[in-house]
Predict the structure.
Amino acid sequence: YIYYKKHPTRKHGVEFDKYYRTEYQVNKKRVAINFGWLSEGWKQHKCLSLLEKYKKNAKNGKRPISLKDEKELAKEKEAEKERLNSQQHKDTITIHNYFYNVYYPLIQKQKAIKTYQREESLFRIWIDSCIGDMPFKKISKADIDGIFYNVT
């Protein structure tokens, strides 16, 4: 069943605004779902269809079983998506981008002027020309040896 209570003063159209809620039992525990106000877009048929969906999920042992659970699932999916995007970004960052966007601005604050200028010139001349456009993950020992043999 979907229950509602009328707001004592607020109206939605001609009728008083209604707040929809329901309760049902899952594994001998009572689950209460507070849907919301009619003026916020919660209609009785929408609440009823969600209630049927949640009861069916609870019966089959699936999630979500409530609005709160649905929001938690959405947060978990968003966090997983963010983690995958972050991992993909880490996997594709190149040596050149890392040096000029992360490392170089950091050493400019921490080291003396001549030191960071020298590091930048060494990177530009020896490292960037050989492996600057490669992602960290794809660099092999042979690439490092190639830099070493170019220097000597």
Observations:
- The two ends are 81 Å apart (CA to CA).
